[in-house]
Amino acid sequence: MTTVRDLSLVRVAFDPWTTASNALRELERNGLALAAVVDRGVPLGLLTRERAAASAPDVPVRTLVQPDFVVIDADTSVRSAAATLVDVGAEVAVVTEGGRFLGAMTALVLLAELGQSYDPLTGLSWGDRLREWGVANLEAGREVTLLFFDLNDFGAYNKRHGHVIGDRIVQAMARLLDDYTDPELDVLVRYAGDEFVIGSTRPRADLEEMAEALRSKTLRVEGIQESVQYSLGVSGGKRTRERDRTHFASTIDNLINLASQDCIAHKPQRARNGGSEETPAHLHVQSVEFGDAGRESVLVALGRGEESVTSRRPVARRETLSAVAQACADGIARFMPGLHLQPLDIAVYRDIDGDQTLTLVCDWTWRDASGTLRGSSNVAGSVLRSVAEAMTSVAIRLQAEGFGGT
Asked: In terms of DSSP bridges, do strands 307-314 and 195-200 run parallel, antiparallel, or are they unpaired?
């Protein structure tokens, strides 16, 4: 889990014999309301701008500090640190590493971070943290390997036992994976509703060993008799040449897609079919073409078994890809009544081996459930067809998890 060392800490600190006037000048120059007073690495207390301004100019700051302050170790999780500040009613804490000063931290910074980037159910970061971590490590020249986890039949558990049990399953999965991560080498995020990712700078072989150990595990959750199983996939750690430094973000997205696809490939057939032993008719793209009226509309044809549907959407200026995605979503809704897909972002990029991949992010809702999923497709020919295939992959994924059925 992310710790307070990852936050924006106030690292300005004063020697005990710094005068009040010099300290005030430094606080104003940095736009700070307070800073720590530190003696040979050991924090003595906090100095506020108000207190420095109210003092005689030549008074040493050691006489002005507030000696009662909260100390939090740098490896404390953000969630635990926030709880500590709330419990003691403090607005500021001093962060230490091995007893030595590392920085000062305000409650506002903690709460803002929790509100923007953290899942309150598990205390884990969301997927944006994985991308930030991945890009930072690639920029530093470190290789990245990902383990992608997906709970099997999660939608079926929610249907049979309710969302309270579903939440317990998600929390149990988070605890299991947290036991296998090292904050110095790894990052663990809740990527989506029942998906988790461990990113690591360890050698690929070490992650393969971790994957094998985790594949033998199951979850026991209070309230259900059967054990809960999951699938996982691996990607990364096999660079063949130097990466293009301008495409680190695309590299991470590509690794996420590859790990997700590997995870799906390792799912048991029953889990892929949403808990059914029967193989459902395969939803697929038949064709994507522009309408008869010039290039003012797109027509998407989808098939499943012997059924076929077509959907048309008008094309606004420079919005062709979005129109294809919307038309495909319309067709999917006719095969899967009640499932609403709303595309949010479409991007095409070239990976380090020269292959092009299209990724599509969309919101989905079905009955009282909702979420965000990412689909992808290799661009072997038509980019427009790849858009429809990426959208269709999202629908297939939802069907495998028990959503979008009758």
From this structure: unpaired
Percent of the chain scoring above 70 in pLDDT: 87
Question: What is the per-residue pLDDT for 295?
Answer: 55
Question: Each residue of 333-371: pLDDT tens digit?
Answer: 988 888 899 988 888 766 555 667 778 888 888 877 787
When pLDDT is cut at 50, 70 and 90, the band that residue 242 belongs to is: very low
Long-range contacts at 376-383 (CB < 8 A, ≥ 24 apart): 376/257, 376/260, 376/261, 379/348, 379/355, 382/288, 383/321, 383/348, 383/358
pLDDT of amino acid 146:
94
Cα separation, 248 vs 352, whole angstroms: 10
Render 211-265 in DSSP notation, one character per residue.
HHHHHT--B--TT-SSPB-EEEEEEES---SPPPGGGHHHHHHHHHHHHHHHHHH
Residue 7 has what pLDDT? 79
Phi, psi of 368 (to 5 degrees): -95, 10
How buried is 280 (Cβ within 10 angstroms: 0-12 exposed, 13-18 middle, 19+ buried)? middle
Tell me the C-alpha to C-alpha distance, in Å, between residue 319 and each of 159, 246, 324, 340. 38, 26, 9, 20
Mention every residue, 6+ apart, whose C-beta is less than 8 A from residue 8. 109
What does the alpha-carbon distance between residue 218 and residue 361 come to, in Å, rounded to a whole number?
Answer: 30
Tokens of 267: 């799912």
Q: Tokens representing 147?
A: 């383990």
Which residues are paired to 20 by β-bridges? none
Q: Which residues contact 148 (CB under 8 A, 6 or more apart)?
A: 191, 195, 196, 197, 232, 233, 234, 235, 256, 259, 260, 262, 263
Nearest to 132 by CA among 290, 291, 8, 296: 8
Measured CA to CA, the distance from residue 310 to residue 60 in angstroms comes to 78
Q: Which three-class secondary structure state does DSSP give residue 129?
A: helix
pTM: 0.52
Element (H, E) at 39: strand 34-39
In sequence order, the 6+-apart residues with CB closer than 8 A to the CB of 87 are none
Mean pLDDT of 24-47: 91
Residue 366, CA atoms < 13 Å, CB-side half-sphere: 21
